Amino acid sequence: MKTQTLRQEKLKSIHLDAEGHFVKLILHKNHVNKYNMYNQVGLVAVNVIGDRLDTPYDPLDPDPLKNVDSLVQGYMNPNSSNGPVWGRINKPDYISRMDDLAFDMYQDPETAALIRKLDDRKREAVQQERYDYAKKLTAVISDLYKVGEKLGRYEVEKKKAVELEDYDLAMEKKRQGDEFRLYVYKQLDIQETTGTRWAPPPLPPIVTDHHRQPPLPRHQEEERRTPPLLSPIRQQLSPREEDTPSVMSPRKDDDVDDRPLPALNKRSPEAEQETVESPRDNSEAAGFVIEVFGEDLVQHAYSKQWKYRQEAMENLERELSSDTAELTSDKDPKTVVKAAVFLIQKGIKDQVFSVFNACLEALRSLVKTYIPRHKIVKSEMSHVAEKTTPPLLAKLGEMAARSRDAATAMIMELAVHKDIKPAGVIADHATRPFKSKHQVAPRMYKSRIEIIEKLLGVLELDSDKPGSLSTGNIMRIVLPALEHTSGDVRDPASRLILELYKKVKDTVRDYLPPDEPATRKNPLYRNLFDGFDKIDGKPTEAERRAQAKAATATSEKAKQAEIAALQAQLQALRDMAGESSKPSNSKPAKEEQVDVDRMCIFCGEKNESFTEEMLDIHYWKSCPMLKRCDHCAQVTEISGVNEHLLTECDSSDKFAQCPRCKEAVLKADLEEHYAANNCSPAKGPRCILCGKTLGKGDEVWSKHLKEDCAPNKARLQQQIVSKAPSQASLRSTRGRGGKTTPLGRGAGKGGRGEEGPCRGDKRTRRGKDENNKSHRDNGN
Question: Which residue ranges does the record assign to the TOG domain (predicted)?
Answer without folding.
Answer: 277-541
